[in-house]
């Protein structure tokens, strides 16, 4: 059972997400709270996944993210956004967010997104990916992806493409017929060579470099 905490300042959003997720097999919503209650409820309920509003009036979502990431064995955190405040996206990425979901995400897509997050995958709504790739992570770093990607071995590039597709280490291991430990070693090497702090940033670099188009071609 995947335990999920929904954190949003709007009661309508909290209730909607809770109903959608509670109706899905294998998912239990352990709480639906506003930002000021988030850290306490995370400590009390120990969720596997937190869906966290990036901007709330009572407390900054980025502050809540940083506080959660400092906990022992922190849950996976994906940010919820309407994308009116997309200048906060890069900060969230660098603070350890595992993905971004728009608040108007198709209800049918929400449970699979949570399942992917719980397995260690990344979740990026297409609009989020386009905005980040075309905006903040591009600014002042036009040459970074090609140069950084040159450091990767062919196998590491294959793993990077699957990371960018949102697959977890277990999923990648099954797809490539490798052990999970071997995949973890590849992922660690990729993050080090690309000089990024997490899978989402690595996925965005792969997107910007066109690796997904190459992989599907």
TrEMBL record:
InterPro entries documented for this protein: CheY-like_superfamily, NreC/VraR/RcsB-like_REC, Sig_transdc_resp-reg_C-effctor, Sig_transdc_resp-reg_receiver, Tscrpt_reg_LuxR_C, WalR-like
SMART domains (alphabetical): HTH_LUXR (SM00421), REC (SM00448)
Protein known as: Response regulator transcription factor
SUPFAM superfamilies, per the entry: C-terminal effector domain of the bipartite response regulators, CheY-like
Sorted UniProt keywords: DNA-binding, Phosphoprotein, Transcription, Transcription regulation
Coiled-coil regions listed in the entry: none
PANTHER family to which the protein is assigned, alphabetical: TRANSCRIPTIONAL REGULATORY PROTEIN NARL-RELATED, TWO-COMPONENT RESPONSE REGULATOR
In-chain residues carrying the UniProt-annotated modification 4-aspartylphosphate: 53
A Pfam family hit: GerE
Highest taxon of the lineage: Bacteria
Domain Response regulatory as annotated: residue spans: 3-118
UniProt cross-references to Gene3D superfamilies, sorted A to Z: 3.40.50.2300
Organism: Streptomyces lavenduligriseus
Residue ranges occupied by any HTH luxR-type domain in the UniProt entry: 145-210
């Amino acid at each position: 059972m995947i335990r999920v905490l929904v954190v949003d300042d709007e009661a309508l959003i909290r209730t909607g997400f809770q109903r959608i997720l509670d109706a899905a097999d294998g998912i239990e919503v352990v709480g639906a709270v506003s930002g000021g209650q988030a850290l306490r409820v995370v400590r009390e309920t120990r969720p596997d996944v937190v869906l966290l509003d990036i901007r709330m009036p009572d407390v900054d979502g980025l502050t809540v993210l940083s506080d959660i990431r400092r906990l022992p064995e922190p849950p996976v955190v994906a940010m919820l956004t309407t994308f009116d405040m997309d200048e906060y996206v890069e900060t969230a990425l660098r603070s350890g967010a595992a993905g971004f979901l728009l608040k108007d995400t198709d209800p049918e897509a929400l449970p699979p997104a949570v399942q992917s997050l719980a397995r260690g995958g990344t979740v990026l709504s297409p609009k989020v990916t386009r905005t980040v790739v075309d905006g903040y992570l591009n600014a002042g770093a036009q040459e970074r992806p090609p140069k950084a990607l040159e450091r990767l071995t062919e196998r590491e590039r294959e793993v990077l493409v699957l990371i960018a597709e949102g697959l977890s280490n277990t999923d990648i291991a099954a797809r490539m017929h490798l052990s999970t430990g071997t995949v973890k070693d590849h992922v660690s090497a990729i993050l080090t060579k690309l000089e990024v702090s997490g899978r989402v940033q690595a996925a965005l670099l792969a997107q910007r470099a066109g690796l997904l188009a190459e992989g599907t071609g």
